[in-house]
Specification:
By secondary structure, this protein is α+β, with helices and mostly antiparallel strands. It contains 14 helices and five strands. The protein starts with a helix and ends with a helix.
């Protein structure tokens, strides 16, 4: 039996009553019928716990290949923004990838809509709040994102205040999909040796580009800098990351998990000193 199975059979049931307030919040905000939580650390550690588990979750737990679930992969989840669908996470990246049993189940059974809200933290970790609904929810809506973030924040405040709970939910040893932090950044530094020359402002500009603020004027307002300063720094960033133009730079930032992982690590280091 895996740690994931133990969590479902014992830990979840033991703490079920403590989750009642989050059950209510998820049902009121999104009419959610099932929900789960994950936290992915940059060192490859993964914490996972069902919050509200019923029929579909029970089917997922019944499959042995759940240890390959791509939602547990730090680098894979860096490819998504603030929200996505669970089915998009599961979609194979390479031609030789085999679909999970649960993925095949979802393809052949009408189960509803599986939404995933994603939050990026200053310690470079990633939180996922997944929930199942019978109707489509527009998670691109700012209001719905605010609702999801509020529920996720309140749940995490509770979860991480209970050592007995979060220690029991560390599923890292089960997983085959995870990837260690040194492996994430080591080759990246070799490919882009000039990145160490970037200033704090440069790193914040990259973060802004990653989250969708692409115009120099908007970045200037957000960072309290002049437009000319931002334009000059963008040119410098482009040279450091060996891009031919701004479009290539934007594509690199959005498509290369190592870039945003570096940004989170760098900003965390700055905050600690």
């Amino acid at each position: 039996m895996t740690i994931i199975d133990d969590i479902y059979k014992y830990t979840y049931k033991q703490w079920y009553q403590s989750f009642a307030v989050y059950h209510k919040a998820l049902k009121e905000a999104f009419c959610a019928t099932e929900a789960w939580y994950s936290r992915l650390m940059i060192d490859g550690s993964v914490y996972n716990l069902p919050i509200l588990s019923k029929g579909i979750s029970e089917i997922w737990y019944a499959f042995d290949d759940k240890v390959y679930d791509k939602s547990y992969s730090y680098t894979h989840m860096l490819n998504f923004g603030k929200n996505t669908r669970y089915t998009d996470i599961l979609t194979k990246q390479h031609a030789n990838d085999q679909p999970l049993q649960f993925e095949r189940y979802l393809q052949h059974n009408a189960t509803g809509f599986y939404h995933v809200f994603i939050k990026y933290h200053m310690d470079a970790s990633i939180s996922l709040l997944g929930f199942l609904t019978s109707q489509f929810i527009n998670m691109s809506s700012l209001l719905n994102q605010q609702r999801a973030e509020k529920i996720l924040t309140e749940f995490e405040n509770f979860f991480w205040s209970e050592p007995n709970l979060y220690e029991a939910c560390n599923i890292t040893k089960d997983l085959i999909i995870t990837r260690k932090s040194p492996d994430i950044l080591q080759q990246f530094f070799l490919n882009y040796p000039e990145i160490h020359r970037l200033s704090v402002t440069d790193v914040k500009i990259i973060k802004a580009l990653y989250f969708g603020t692409i115009h120099a004027g908007d970045i200037a307002i957000a960072l309290h800098k002049s437009r000319r300063t931002i334009e000059n720094r963008l040119e410098y960033i482009r040279e450091c990351l060996q891009c031919q133009n701004k479009f290539e730079l934007y594509h690199l930032i959005k498509s290369t998990p190592e870039v945003i992982a570096y940004v989170f690590v760098r900003l965390r280091h700055i905050a600690d000193h």
